[in-house]
Amino acid sequence: MSSAKISLGQFGLVILLAGQLLLQLDFSIINVGLAAISASLKASETELELFVSAYGLAFAICLAMGARLGDNFGRRRIFAIAVVMFGLASLLCGVANSVMFLVAARALQGLAAALMVPQILATIHVTLSGRDHARAVALYGAIGGLAFIVGQVLGGFLISANIAGSGWRSIFLINLPICVLILLCVWRQVPETRGQRNVPVDWSGTITLALLTLSILLPTALGPSLHWSWTCLLGYVPILPLTALLWRIERRKEERGSFPILPPSLVRISSMRFGGLIAIIFFTSWSGFMFVFALTLQSGAGLTPLQSGDALIALGASYFLSAVVVVPRLSDVRREAVLVAGCLIQMVGLCLLIVTLEWVWPNPGLVNLIPATALIGFGQAFIVNCFYRAGLADVPHEHAGSGSAMLATMQQVSLGLGPAILGAVFAETLQHSNLYLTAGITTIMVELGLMVILLAAAIHRLLSQRGVAPVSAEVEAMIVVPE
Predict the structure, then answer these.
(1) What is the pLDDT of residues 435-456, one digit of tens each?
(2) Fewest CB within 10 A of the end CB: N or C in the chain?
(3) What phi, psi does 263 have (nearest 5°)?
(4) In Å, what is the CA distance from 316 to each residue of 54, 154, 357, 376?
(5) Are 355 and 231 in contact (CB under 8 A)?
(6) How far apart are CA 238 and CA 307, in angstroms?
(7) CB contact burial 37-60 (16+ within 10 A = b; e otherwise)
(8) Per-residue DSSP letters for 337-366?
């Protein structure tokens, strides 16, 4: 079924972007409710790590599957099914009475998000062109920063307002009317499209990737509470065999002309390896920082959910302004140079945050945190902008879709593992010092060390790429096109 002549109206675009906003809100709103959830369900830091990571990992593992299902069975249909699933999962989160039930419900939310996101991007690409397409993609990209700000404020308000005694549950239940509204409009306003041919889902690769990420997540998250016993460390044993198995499965699929979620041929391209390094270091640090900083402010400094959310408004606002106003003006600057600048700005912000926390603790006023968090958000926008540009730099034009899908998978896996990895550092330090300030600063220093590694790699890449033409705008525009 060809969709070349089908056009998406403005209201249809609003419906799709509302779906994206819903997912982004749910991702950012969670950190505000960590302390309230912990107190209500008597959850430990380890259980909170699993709760936060469940969404991101389910999303990452199933993202490629979501794109294939939309291509094969119709993007509007899969989008609608995903909205129903997301609403159901939100209801389950809202009525959860145990941590493990909440973890399972969050994983279901992540699965629904993985089904929804590819349909939004693909529908925009096949139904819009020219200026309308550019505007839609720009709006899609800007939603991330907007959702972060709204999520922090809305989440803090809902929990503090305690509407009908719902407390933290309201941050999930608020999704239900939004899902209903989207469902009522999507069938009339969003045209049905699908791929020109059916592409099989890489089930074996997806399952193996899931097992691999779990073999990293579980022992890392459980390590501090189990005191890194030998039974805990045994959980890492499957990592190498599963990595080898995944490589073998994906290589065979690629040799047969199939469509693996992680094509081995792309791993041999230097820019893709560099993009993977950015994903592993930056996005792991990013999500881990958000998790740890929220716990430090709420459980350590005693800030309310509303105050904790307000403390990060400057970060979200500076990220939004940097991404929308500053970064587009740097399109002619080498991507590696922009990445170096972003790393330096964020590192200065992290150092300033450490000094600020030491200075104002245990009463971190919101105004005192603005300079540091604003710098962090400003630099983050630079790095995010360079991620796909740097990763796709050496990828042949005809493989840009596969390359972007692979980078997206690595990005989401890293976002999912971040709370577990940096959360383990936080929990381990907290066990030894029993001071939230010490645990928070130690974790920030670990993030600084990771950023030093990324900075060194970016400088090396910048020096080695002199004289090489930057990635074309056409290739960059393909980063969201499913192949």
Answers:
(1) 889 999 999 999 999 999 999 9
(2) N
(3) -60, 120
(4) 23, 13, 19, 9
(5) no
(6) 42
(7) bbeebebebbbbbbbbbbbbbbbb
(8) HHHHHHHHHHHHHHHHHHHHHHHHTT---H
Mean pLDDT of 466-474: 52
Residue 258 CB neighbour total at 10 angstroms: 14
**Given this model, what pLDDT does residue 5 score?**
55
> What are the tens digits of pLDDT across the range 398-418?
677 677 778 888 888 888 888
Distance between CA atoms of 71 and 386, rounded to whole angstroms? 28
Higher pLDDT, 425 or 134: 425
Tokens of 51: 């709760």
> What pLDDT does 4 receive?
46
Q: Which of 268, 243, 241, 265 is nearest to 253 (CA)?
A: 265
Q: Residue 226 pLDDT more than 60?
A: yes
**Which token pair is 451?**
């950023």
Residue partners of 314: CB distance under 8 A and separation at least 6: 369, 370, 373, 374, 377
Judge whether residue 473 has pLDDT over 80.
Answer: no
Contact indicator for 168, 40 with CB cutoff of 8 Å: yes
Residue 150 CA, chain-centre distance (Å), reads: 17
SS3 percent helix, strand, coil of the chain, rounded to 5, is 80, 0, 20
Structure tokens at 409: 């998978």
In single-letter form, the type of residue at position 483 comes to E
pLDDT band at 356 (very low <50, low <70, confident <90, very high): very high
Q: Under the phi-then-psi rule, with left for phi > 0, alpha for psi from -120 to 50, and beta for the rest, what region is 302?
A: left
What is the per-residue DSSP string for 95-138? H--SHHHHHHHHHHHHHHHHHHHHHHHHHHHHH--HHHHHHHHH
Highest mean pLDDT, choosing among 82-86, 247-251, 294-298, 321-325: 82-86
Count of residues in the chain:
483
Averaged pLDDT, 183-200: 84
- DSSP class of residue 24? H
Residue 476: alpha-carbon gap to chain centroid: 19
- Rounded distance, CA 261 to CA 327, Å? 30
Alpha helical stretches, state H, 128-238: 130-161, 170-173, 175-189, 203-226, 230-233
The residue among 364, 382, 351 whose CA lies nearest residue 437 is 364
